[in-house]
Each structure stands twice: as C-alpha cells, then as structure tokens.
C-alpha cells in the first residue's frame, strides 16, 4: 500500500493510528491542498485520480504521485522515493509547509504543496529542460486542522529537552539538578517532563524516569529549535576580512566562550562538509571575535553569531552533536541535510 494509507498521523508526537481515520485525514488534506492550488491557477486546473491506492495529480499534462504527510519534515523531502510511472514525479502534500521546505523544493524532482496554497512544483525532463514551474508562498498557515503545539516545544521546553537529549540519563536526575543545568524554574521543568510523559517521549517505571521515542523527539526538537528558539538567539553577523582568512578558517582560534556550530562544527567533527556558511555560538560579547583579526562586521556576512543557551561541563570548540544536527537541518540545503543524517548515524546513535 502507499504511504498515504499506512503511515500514522503525527501531530507534535501524538499518533492517530486507526487506518480508516488515517484515510479520512489524508484525503481531507489532499482535497484541501488541491483546492488551494486550483484557486491560484488561472488556466488549466489540477485533477486527481488514483493508480491503485496511490493518489496522482495531473497538472498541465504532467503527472505527480502524491505522498501525503500531515507532519512533513525536510528529511521526508530528501527521501529518494520514485514513482512506478517513470514519467511521473513525486509531490509531497502536507497541512503547512515552512519557508525552508519551499526553498528545498527548488531542487529538481522535489515538489511540495500545502493546504493553505503554498507550493513549489516543477517538472524537469531527463535532458534537464524545465517544462513546468509553478510557485506560490506567503499564504497564512492552516490552524484549524492541526492541534496547537504543546508547551514542551516552546522556548523553555526546548532548552530542557536539549539537556535531556545530551545524555539519556539526565531525564532521571532530580528536578532541581535539571533546573540548575537549564536555568528553567523547577515548576516548569516538572510541567515539561509531565508533558513529555503525556506525549510518550518519557515513561516512569519503579519511580524512575526514562526517555522514549528519542528518534522522533530529536526530529521534533530540531524542527522547533530552528523555528522558535534559534531566531531569538541571533546576535550579529561578520564576514572574513580576506578570502585567505576564509580559506584558512580552521587556523583561526576562537576566543574563550565561543565555539563553532553548524557546517564548521560538522567539518571539524567528522569532515563531512566544506562550509559555505559559518555559525558561532557565544556566551561572551560577539565583538570579542574581532580580536582574532580575521573578521569584520557585515550585516550580510557568512559568519552568524548566536547566543549560547546551555551550560558546558567541559570546554570544547564545537557545539554538541544534537545542536550541530539541528543547525544543519535548519539550512534546507541538501548537502547539509545529508551531513546531518551522517551526524545522526554516527554521533547520535545513542539516541536511536
């Protein structure tokens, strides 16, 4: 059977596992998304038929196999699934897409459509010629289909969950220890962990707490970190003073209190990438970076500085693997997403 019918509906970690309910839910998503698409088309409208169980959308003579995912992620969009019909292309259909999903959908053979009428759809022939290209963005998200996010993925929850993911044993520590490590009030810590238990990301056995469904928790944490917490941490941007400084960025010694994140962190950890953008986290003034003599202030520079939001037990020049993974996923860049999956496979295997 197709992905349309066998995947569970996922809304912020809650499953709706009944197959009949899933058919109805996905069918409604598909209907609303196609209606929203057609409202933006002035000529030929899109139509839907079925190839067995698989919904297929025909648009301006071109055929797209629809993969309906209520909670679509960037990783889903990187899946190398192929339709049985070699002339068709894959179209991911979801409730709400993010700007980063629309950006990723600029790549050939990655198409996306949501219920609000945001889409990026193209059809490229084998010779590279693009015969169909349609895009629309900026439509307001659909709120009445998707339940409200639980507080565990808001700012304080993201800080607590980050600490819990650093070491699976941290979930079992006293609330006061977690409060001291995250600078979040003890009452909020308890509420967040209670919320995690309710959403089946934690369980209690013999009065001891354990993390569960850590793979899904990591994915949701990374997604919400990029959308909610990371923008609030932004401090400023710099550029390398000379191209030679950029090429030899590894030779630059960061001031105490600063560390590499994102692409440079992945490079220093496992050598997966040649950085195109440079991320730095700091708990000292960002201007301290000027002391290296390698950078200058630049609002459009390739170096982005963020406030460090966690406590370190030991000094290091790169962010924890969880944060490196999240930063890479937040780029919506295919090479960075592939590197993020390698970080997950090798550096975060204790969570899988």
Provide structural commentary.
With 352 residues, this protein is of the alpha+beta class. Helices cover 35% and strands 22% of the residues. It is built from twelve helices and 16 strands. The strands form four sheets. The protein has a seven-stranded mixed sheet. α8 crosses α11 and α11 packs antiparallel against α12. The longest helix is centred in the first third of the chain and has 20 residues. The chain is globular.
Write the layout of secondary structure elements.
Blueprint: H1 3-6, E1 9-11, E2 14-16, H2 19-38, E3 47-51, E4 54-59, E5 62-68, H3 74-77, E6 89-94, H4 99-104, E7 111-114, E8 119-124, E9 130-136, H5 155-166, H6 175-182, H7 186-198, E10 202-205, E11 208-211, H8 214-233, E12 234-240, H9 243-247, E13 258-261, H10 262-270, E14 278-282, E15 295-297, E16 303-307, H11 321-329, H12 334-346
Parallel strand pairs: 5-6, 6-7, 14-16
Antiparallel strand pairs: 1-2, 3-4, 4-5, 7-8, 8-9, 10-11, 12-15, 12-16, 13-14
Helix pairs in contact: 5-8, 8-11, 10-11, 11-12
Write down the Rg: 22 Å
* Model regions low in confidence, pLDDT < 50 over at least 5 residues: 1-24, 145-149
Overall spatial form: globular
Order of SSEs, N→C?
Answer: HEEHEEEHEHEEEHHHEEHEHEHEEEHH
Structural class: alpha+beta
Largest sheet: 7 strands, mixed
Distance between the termini: 26 Å
Sequence of strands across the biggest β-sheet: 3-4-5-6-7-8-9
Compute the number of helices: 12
Q: Give the averaged pLDDT, no decimals.
A: 87
Q: Approximately how much beta-strand content do the residues carry?
A: 15-25%
């Amino acid at each position: 059977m197709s992905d349309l019918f066998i995947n569970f509906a996922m809304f912020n970690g809650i499953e709706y596992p009944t197959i009949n309910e899933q058919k109805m839910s996905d069918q409604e998503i598909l209907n609303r998304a196609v209606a929203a698409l057609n409202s933006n088309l002035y000529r030929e409208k899109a139509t839907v038929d079925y190839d067995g169980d698989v919904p297929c959308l025909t648009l301006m003579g071109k055929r797209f196999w629809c993969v309906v995912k209520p909670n679509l992620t960037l990783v889903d969009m990187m899946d190398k699934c192929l339709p049985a019909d070699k002339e068709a292309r894959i179209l991911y259909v979801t409730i709400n897409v993010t700007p980063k999903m629309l950006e990723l959908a600029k790549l050939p053979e990655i198409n996306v459509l949501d219920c609000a009428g945001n889409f990026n759809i193209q059809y490229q022939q084998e010779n590279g010629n693009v015969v169909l290209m349609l895009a629309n963005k900026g439509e307001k998200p659909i709120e009445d289909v998707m339940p409200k996010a639980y507080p565990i993925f808001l700012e304080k929850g993201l800080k607590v969950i980050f600490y819990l993911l650093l070491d699976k044993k941290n979930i079992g520590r006293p609330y006061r220890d977690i409060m001291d490590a995250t600078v979040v009030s003890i009452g909020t810590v308890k509420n967040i962990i209670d919320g995690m238990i309710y959403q089946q990301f934690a369980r209690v056995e013999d009065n001891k707490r354990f993390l569960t469904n850590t793979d899904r928790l990591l994915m949701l944490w990374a997604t919400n970190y990029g959308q909610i917490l990371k923008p609030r941490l932004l401090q400023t941007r710099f550029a390398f003073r000379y191209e030679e400084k950029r090429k030899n960025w590894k030779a630059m010694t960061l001031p105490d209190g600063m560390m590499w994140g994102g692409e440079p962190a992945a490079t220093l950890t496992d050598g997966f990438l040649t950085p195109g953008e440079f991320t730095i986290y700091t708990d000292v003034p960002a201007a301290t970076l000027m002391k290296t003599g390698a950078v200058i202030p630049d609002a459009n520079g390739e170096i982005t500085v963020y406030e460090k939001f966690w406590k370190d037990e030991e000094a290091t020049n790169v962010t924890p693997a969880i944060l490196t993974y999240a930063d890479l996923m937040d780029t919506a860049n295919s090479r960075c997403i592939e590197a993020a999956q390698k970080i997950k496979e090798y550096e975060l295997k204790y969570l899988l």
